[in-house]
TrEMBL record:
Transmembrane segments: none
Pfam families in alphabetical order: SnoaL_4
SUPFAM superfamilies xrefs: NTF2-like (SSF54427)
Residue ranges occupied by any SnoaL-like domain in the UniProt entry: 12-138
Protein name: SnoaL-like domain-containing protein
């Protein structure tokens, strides 16, 4: 039999989902660059991750462990790019206590070395609630299609 949640528990669940959506959008904002003077915000990015976070993408050959390794990987991955713009869509977020998962469809526009790409991907994310709030514990990126010009 399904146990009903109290009003306070339901409100907390909704607040958690909104906090996670904001965290994910903030991550995208921090790694975007290339318009209106925008640059990747490497100073602010570490605060979004747990210390032992992972960031994986088989198609890119990336398997980074630890927040500092992730930041170094992102610095290298974005160094030659002129533009990076992330759009996370169709969020499916599940919260269970102090852990949560998110599944997203993701469009990323990138331009570098004279080539413009629009990449369609999916992203699986795990989150942990910490004393500082929700943080990203893992990102697993899956390429679906790349369109280029």
């Amino acid at each position: 039999m399904r146990q009903e949640r109290s009003l306070e528990e339901r409100i907390q669940y909704l607040e958690d989902i909104e906090s996670i959506k904001k965290l994910q959008a903030t991550y995208g904002h921090y790694v975007d660059k290339g318009w209106n003077g925008k640059e990747v915000d490497f100073e602010s990015l570490p605060a979004l991750f747990t210390e032992d976070a992972t960031w994986k993408c088989a198609a890119m050959g990336v398997d980074s462990k630890g927040v500092n390794t992730i930041i170094d990987m992102l610095k290298e991955a974005t160094a030659d790019g002129e533009l990076g713009m992330h759009s996370f869509t169709n969020p499916i977020i599940n919260v269970s206590g102090d852990e949560a998962t998110g599944k997203y469809l993701l469009w990323v526009g990138v331009k570098g070395a004279g080539v413009t790409n629009l990449v369609y991907q999916s992203e699986d994310v795990e989150y942990l609630r910490t004393a500082e709030g929700w943080k990203i514990a893992s990102i697993n990126l899956h390429f679906a299609q790349m369109l280029n010009s």
